[in-house]
Amino acid sequence: MNRHTTLAALLSACALGAVSAAWAAPPPTMDSRALEAKFDAQIDPAEMGGWLKLLAAEPNHVGSAHDKTNAEWIAAQLKSWGWNARIETFDVLYPTPISESLELVGGAGAPFKATLTEPPVAGDAATNTKDALPAYVAFQGDGDVTAPLVYVNYGMPDDYLALERMGISVKGKIAIARYGGGWRGLKPKLAQDHGAVGAIIYSDPKDDGYATEDVYPKGPARPPHGFQRGSVADMTLYPGDPLTPGVGSTKDAKRLDRSQAQTILKIPCLPISYADAQVLLASLDGPVAPANWRGSLPITYHVGGGAAGGRVRLAVKSDWSTKTLYDVVGELKGRDAPNEWIVRGNHHDGWVMGASDPLSGQIALLAEAKALGGLVKAGWKPGRTIVYTSWDGEEPMLLGSTEWAETHADELKAKALVYINSDGNGRGFFGAEGSHAFQHFVNQVSADVKDPETGVSVRDRLRARLEVLAADPGANEQARATGKIAADPAKDLPIAPLGSGSDYSAFLQHLGLASINVGYGGEGDSGGVYHSLYDDYEHHSRFVDPGFVYDATLAKTVGRMVIRLADADLPVQRYGDFADTVGRYLDEVKKLAETTRDQAATQKKLLASNAYGLAADPTIPHAAPTALGQSPATNFAALDVAVAKLKASSAAFDTALAAKGAGLSKPQKARLGAAVRPLDQSLLRPEGLPGRPWYMNMVYAPGRFTGYGAKTLPGVREAIEERRFDDAQKYVGVTAQALEAYAANLDKATAIVNGG
Prior knowledge:
single chain; about 750 residues; alpha/beta; Aminopeptidase; Glucose Oxidase, domain 1; Transcription Elongation Factor S-II, Chain A; 7-stranded mixed β-sheet; 24 helices; 18 strands; globular
């Protein structure tokens, strides 16, 4: 899925740069710096490039022969480097295409049949494979439908509001949306919710094709017949096997009937290329699309809805059998605390070859594993157990990580200190998302990793980049606020919150385990081949990370995190950062509640002033907007008290640890570690979020209508956004309970530091 951090995600964090000086993890000692230097010396970009060429030689989708071969090869490599490695298998529902067809049967340009396959590229031998999946999205609903076509722009909620204003409905029709503007799976889901009988998603050249760069193979952008595969399962309800929500998909697991699985779409859906989309879109009549709906195809974009517009037949049939996943798990046993785990993961399955997404992150994991094994052979032994995981089935629905986490839930809750994730990687700037108690730790590590392009630390390069972005005349408020933080060297750079889209989800949002997601990007360009046949070794080595230098930098970054966490004799977390961040989230939610209170008048004003950028067309009937009622006031008193307590408890812990941590005895340090390790589990509430109980974390969740994007204090925030005011008031209390439990458990840890 490739949810690696981008500059946009970092800017959206916009944390106010917690700088509480009460506790900062001590810098590495001379011995630890020597250890890290030995680790770095073993990272070989050329070797990593060889691994990528091998792993990306053939298609790696779930159920493919090469996906299994890669898992076996990874396990064998880990064993050869001294790891205790094994493969764990899970049998999961995973549909694969039997047949798919898309035809224009009426309107200008008919008859026309979409290609639905990607042609090979001269000079790129890997693209000659016969084993690539055709145009397909997993967990769509099979069907054979014929209906008029309607263009819905990005297919997001505001687009349907605009269509309503134009008097155009998708009920009984097939919606065609372009990629971008929101997560893939929301496009057919919203189409289905609005009564569409089918959905098509295409890649417009304005977003990742010839309007952005030369197309592959001359440049990195998407070629005319390239398309983006993916999953359209409703991941915002729960990830993992749709038939085993909340439990591991083991042989004896109780499974739902497929008709009961809420995450599976009910209407057929296919992705197509912009070459095929051009023919379909050119067949549409009806009003000319608004200016901000127009892509870069050489046509006049129409919305459709007229009597003579395009009519299409969409047919998809899938094999709905179970397929076997191959998760690779390796361990280096800890010296002092074998039952305390540092868990590290990246997935190895791809939609086709998957060189950039995910194998660029996988080769970093392998380089780390080899170097750590080399340190062990040279006499080092980690204080805590290190668990390295290579997941299968991430692309369709975070399958391998979710099933493993659910199967081992009790053991993970008892032993895991943190989960560190990566996914796709590329040339450019460092970025991190995660649990904010680790924000200062992430800053310390990134300050000690050299950027291969500039020679400064990756943190300092990012700091400079954020300052430059903030100085741009078009910078938004978030960019300016983050740039102000970056300009102050005394302040840590913020990390962004985690939503979903990669393998940390089950750990953070279901089990309550602190998580960090790390990646580089912003200069290498993999977007044009995302989830396509062309995401292969040739493209990655030419356009995404030539020389594999940033893939190696990722290995050096995460390797430091793992070594330091494995050997730390005191907690590296700084809880004041977490408390300050939660306080900011509460301020945001309060502001949201205020602006929502008179939303009916605001909506009326926006529509009257044509703020959505829609040109009035007197020939098209305009539906009156649905009136919004007044918003009742939400009482935030319980959250105010809980956040104040959290801040006080965090300050007390950080201050005590700074003053007394170094003097604690070994038994006290062990007790302290045992006290803070499960702390993030306090953020879970057993009832979960409204309508999606699998997500139990009251601070971090993917948004119901953002998919990958994070929603913070989600029970309250989303209820206000969606005008579910009873839920908002209820989750003020539920979230306050979680924060109070967190603070109370932190107080117990403080008592240990103080000699209790």
